[in-house]
Amino acid sequence: MDTNFVAREQSRLLGELSSFLSIPSVSALPSHAVDCRRAAEWLRDELGSLGCPTVQLVEGNGHPVVWAESPHVPDRPTLLIYGRPSGNNADHTQVRFWTNDISKDVKQLVEGGVVFDEYDTETFKTVDLIVTSPIGRSAWFKDPDGNTIALFQPA
Fold first, then answer.
1. Which residue range(s) make up the domain with 127?
2. Is residue 145 part of a domain?
C-alpha cells in the first residue's frame, strides 16, 4: 500500500474536491436541476477515471443517480454513498476528511471558493477558520445541501 499517496497528491485531490463542491447541486431546489445533473456527470466521469469497472447514470423520476462498482479488493473496506430525495440539512458533521496540514488545505479550499464556518463559543473558537483542541485541529464548511463537512488534523 502506498502510504505517501495522499501527501504526494494532496494538492490535486483538494483541487478535485473543490471543483466538485463548487457545483451548486442543491437537490431540493428545482432551479438547481441542471447543476444536480452536472454534479452527477462529474462524479460519473471521476469514478470512471479512477478505474471503476462499472459506472453509469441511472435515470428516474427525479435527479440522476450515479451507480458505480469499484474493483474488488479483498479485506478492504467499501464505501456506499447515497442520495436523498431532499436536502438532509443535518445539524452535525456528516463526513470528516483527515489531513496532515489543515492550514494549507483550508487556504486552498478558500481560494477555490469554499466558505468555512466560524465559531466563538464557550468550548471552542475559530482562529484563522480553524479550531484547535487537545485532540487536534478542525475546520468546518457546508456542502451545497447545507450538510456539515469537516477537515481534521490529529494532534
1. 87-155
2. yes
Q: How far apart are CA 47 and CA 15, in angstroms?
A: 16
| 5, 13, 66, 100 from 8: Cα distances, Å | 5, 10, 28, 11
Could you report the per-residue pLDDT of 121-151, keeping only the tens digit for each?
877 899 999 999 888 899 999 888 778 889 9
Backbone phi, then psi, for 56, in 5-degree steps?
-155, 155
Query: Which amino acid appears at position 16 of this protein?
Result: E
Give, in order, the Cα–Cα distances in Å from 96 to each of 52, 99, 140, 141.
Answer: 23, 10, 9, 11
Prediction pTM value: 0.54
Length of the chain: 155
Paired with 69 in beta bridges are 54
Cα–Cα distance measured from residue 111 to residue 129, given in angstroms and rounded to the nearest whole number: 13
If pLDDT is split at 50, 70 and 90, which confidence band does 8 have?
Answer: very high
Q: Is residue 104 part of a domain?
A: yes
CATH number at residue 94: 3.10.180.10
| 144 assigned to some structural domain | yes
The domain total for the chain is: 1
Helix runs in 22-130, H state only: 33-49, 102-111
